[in-house]
Amino acid sequence: MGILTIDIGTTTGWCMRANGATVSGSLDLSGDRHEGAGMRFVRFRAWLYEMHEKCPITGVFYEDVQAHKGHYAGQVYAGLRAVLMTFCELHNIPYAGVGVQKIKKFVTGKGNAGKGAVIAAVRKFGFSPADDNEADAIALLLYIEDGPLAAALL
Asked: Which SUPFAM superfamilies does the record associate with it (predicted)?
């Protein structure tokens, strides 16, 4: 079973648990000034296919963000989420969004915890995230495995 958790954004945090092993990281989807605006979505799609080829993905959970600081960030999020959902539909992979506050409350005890608190909490579980995006994806994995969604996965 390959569960993929994702913190969608220009820097996308991800975590994959398969066969008892966990790998995680951050994927930089920002482009350069010579690329078209749609290239981040092309790169994200290619990355999903690459991950699925390495280890078949059997379920995807992503941070369901309801508000963004800026208009452009919201557009990027929506586009990447659409790519993710399309990928899952084409491969018959179940997917679900989980509210950010639920994840933060589970991992830190506080629904409005800052980035530093989430990183610190994830480190207490034995992980070493490189940035807050990777920490968010790991926190989401912990939430779905040990929280209210665990029964549905097992």
From this structure: Ribonuclease H-like
